[in-house]
Write a structure and sequence with these properties.
homodimer; metal-binding (chains A, B); Intradiol_dOase_core (chains A, B); Protocatechuate 3,4-Dioxygenase, subunit A; catechol 1,2-dioxygenase activity (chains A, B); 2 domains; 10 strands
Chain lengths: ~300, ~300
């Protein structure tokens, strides 16, 4: 390019800082990349202008991001934790899964899903370490009009009564403890036995845990059971059922709780019913239907 | 805390996502931390709501931040590069160094400053590798009323004619090549000999360089000489003089160029003047005063 054809860019100044940066995006950049980059720059500069960080505060932010990056490994994703505790993961999920009111809402997937389980019979007890209060879950998978969806596959997973997933305690918990995969029957029904879920902390020994401490926040997730419900022709639902009496129900550290996902857990004192389930009395029972939205 | 005294938090929803996150900041958090955290969350959520990232785009952002963190080491700070190329470093500098119009403006410090040099005599040639077009720099350090400031210390550093700082090429360039420290005389004057600076790329073999590529941007800094001017009772100035004929003057990749910092470089064809300086003709000459703001 010679002087006459070369583009002239505005010099940087405080008042027009974001415009000066975004003017540099090249002419052949794909539109979505341009849209994302220019929005990031605008909001980032707006944040800096509102906060007016000192040099030391800016450097603290640089060091926080660096430490968060250094904490990431093949088995630990500290930036996803950061996204989770800042509500960004839930916001991205909400944006991508706007559904009719009657459809089951999504919530966060989390890092502990294990794909590829074989199908278990309905009624299977997925608790293999014998810890915790027994729970039976009865569900129905239906469409928005209430018609049953048979042959849906349902992945289920949760922590054990010590607050850990099996994959966090390999060699300690029985393999596949508190995981199962089921299919819905002709009436859309599936059921399984398990234990009442309990709250647990997200990994808080890294920069994100330190940040939570500085913000006066605890690291606990509200007690829940994970579900993925898949059926041909329907939008996959990734969700939880929450225990209604969990002390962290209103302050899940990753903001995963939605009113519609709080289960109606019943405390059953009925020795006959318990015996039929292979439980001792009392035990817990929850019924929760999953309503799937048809694919567009 | 029992149920009656425990605070009730709003559950997360898309419309009030930032408010739900910020409601969790604890009551005893120091006010500045609260101010920064809540502004970050508000602007971050506003960006996500504008961009509406897909799950894949969100994951790409997570991976970009992770890779940027993994690129950081004791000798490479990729997050500072990111801050630089997004104009954030210059914005933070501008916010912290608002000065009267007549005072010399700051610009970016950069990662290649070396502290603790001993003072050189005025007139010293800081170019020790003999490469490049000879340049003489004459300067005066003055206060806002134009009165000379004697005894100011001036740190100077720049790349060699290959576009590298000495610390980037240890064992290749002579030690201390193109660095010097001077003091202003009774008239506020200092001068030194060097070579005309040339443009150079920031390190672009990491995630930030890849990002620049995707944005259709080059990695080049406009040609410049670094200065730090310190004098008791005055605000320290960290700045550059830019070469006016650099092809990247209007598109410095870190946005460091300010109109007032573009030097008036004169091309001198005068054999006598050259001989007096120990130069061959032609050579370059620049005169630039530095105007310091008194400390409040």
């Amino acid at each position: 390019m010679n002087a006459s054809t070369k583009q002239s860019f505005p010099l940087f100044d405080e008042a027009h800082s974001a415009e000066a940066v975004n003017a540099r995006i090249g002419p052949n950049v794909d539109p979505r990349t341009r849209e994302i980059a220019s929005a990031v720059v605008r909001h980032l500069h707006a944040a800096v202008k509102e906060i007016e960080p000192t040099h030391e505060e800016w450097l603290a932010a640089i060091n926080f991001l660096t430490n968060t990056g250094h904490m990431c490994s093949d088995w630990r994703q500290e930036f996803i934790l950061l996204s989770d505790v800042l509500g960004v993961s839930m916001l991205v999920d909400a944006i991508n899964h706007r559904r009719p009111t009657q459809a089951t809402e999504n919530t966060i997937l989390g890092p502990f899903f294990v794909d590829g389980l074989s199908i278990s019979d309905n009624g299977t007890n997925i608790c293999r370490d014998g810890k915790g209060e027994p729970l039976v879950v009865h569900s129905r998978v239906v469409d928005i009009k209430g018609a049953p969806i048979s042959g849906a596959t349902i992945d289920v997973w949760q922590t054990n009564d010590d607050g850990f997933y099996d994959v966090q305690q390999q060699g300690i918990q029985p393999e596949g403890n508190l995981r199962g995969k089921f299919t819905s029957d002709a009436d859309g029904r599936f059921w399984f036995r398990s234990v009442k879920p309990r709250f647990y902390p997200i990994p808080d020994d890294g920069p994100v845990g330190k940040m939570l401490g500085k913000l006066g926040r605890h690291p606990n997730r509200a007690a829940h059971i994970h579900f993925i419900i898949e059926a041909p022709g329907f939008e996959t639902v990734i969700t939880h059922i929450f225990a209604p009496d969990c002390p962290y129900l209103q302050e899940d550290t990753v903001f995963g709780v939605k009113e519609s996902l709080i289960g109606r857990f019943e405390h059953v004192e009925d020795a006959d019913a318990a015996e039929k389930l292979g439980f001792t009395s009392p035990f817990w029972s929850v019924e929760q239907d999953f309503v799937l939205k048809p694919l567009a």
